[in-house]
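Hello,

I think I submitted the coenzyme A job twice by accident. Can you confirm which output corresponds to this input? Input:
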Amino acid sequence: MSNVEYSKGLEGVIAAESRICKVDGENGKLYYEGYSIDDLVEHCNFEEVTYLLLYGELPNEGEFSSFQSHMRASRDLSEPIRRMIQEFPNENHPMELLQSVVAYLSGYVEHKIQHSAHCNCRDTLHQVVQLSTVVAAYERYKTGHGYIRPSKSLSHGSNFLFMLTGAEPGELEGRIMDDCLILHAEHGFNASTFTARVVASTISTCYSAISAAIGALFGSLHGGANEKVMAMVDEIGEPSNAAGWVNRTLDEKRKVMGMGHRVYKAKDPRAVIMENYLYQLSEKHGDFRYYEILKEVERAFRDRMEEKGKPIYPNVDFFSGAVYRLLGIPTRLFTPIFAMARASGWLAHVLEQREDNRIYRPKALYVGERDKTVIPIEQR
Ligand SMILES: CC(C)(COP(=O)(O)OP(=O)(O)OC[C@H]1O[C@@H](n2cnc3c(N)ncnc32)[C@H](O)[C@@H]1OP(=O)(O)O)[C@@H](O)C(=O)NCCC(=O)NCCS
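Support: Only one job matched these inputs. Its output is below.
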């Protein structure tokens, strides 16, 4: 192992084999289990994609029907969890709530298998399914409303909007919400997924692994850029202010949120799909203000970057915040929605880690002192 080089943040280090996700940064393509994200969004719903991630292949009709009924049967929250949400301190962030609830949900793991490499998580699926109910219930309670029981006849995305508002969403809104979940379900060995795999590698439960992953996603370097994009849109106010705002921001050496990506060197394929959804929703609302501001920001930013020979494109967060806002979702739920979607990918990675497990144990490059002598406390 002496030929392994130090790489800060593990950049470029290959830590495991995985068949789940391929991010082709050069060509701006994303694949889950070999299927392109464009194809999945066109032909599948989030539940089907969850099956794909957990079982490695798309289901046939019979398999899908039983998996879907199973997922839908797990949607409702038990009374203790609803109480937990109601009693959650008002000033805390909903990501902290999600983390605690998932840890609490570990009560669903059968006791005898709790600390084994195999558990019944593919059967219960609570940690994937119930996150959306928790997020919706949190918002209902926070705004002084009551809990809305999930519907079993709606897709995962439509049901989320239904639990949030009490009204069944339109066909367009429901489909876009479900597709947004597909687009965020998986993205390779990012920080939260790696966290889930590290925890799984100790033969801890899938609930502990997902709870830890939520903690990693909470950090502002990982989740949350779409919240900042919407703050930018609000500050810009009108499309005609966008170019000036971008120029000032870049002159002050500040980052334009939602632009650039560590892996994609072409336009993020999820951003292409999100942009189209934003257009469709803007058309339905008869209001293109967010769309036009974002397109002006993109144009001004790309012009400045191309002058410097840096082709930098929008990432998934650039359009997603505006899409959520037009779906009537408050900003504080943007990162929890990311977690709701990514839970499928995290669980897929936990299961894959267990197939051929070895505990993660990297080394640190020691830069401290050596051979120091302890001076007794009274002489220090
Ligand atoms: C995502 C991100 C962290 C990737 O950073 P990275 O891997 O260092 O990006 P690159 O190596 O491609 O950056 C190349 C150059 O472009 C600049 N750049 C990259 N993204 C930029 C942005 N959004 N705004 C302004 N400048 C940017 C970098 O500062 C760097 O400049 P330098 O060569 O003068 O140092 C970065 O693009 C960023 O902070 N984006 C905004 C936040 C965001 O949207 N995050 C969500 C990611 S899904």
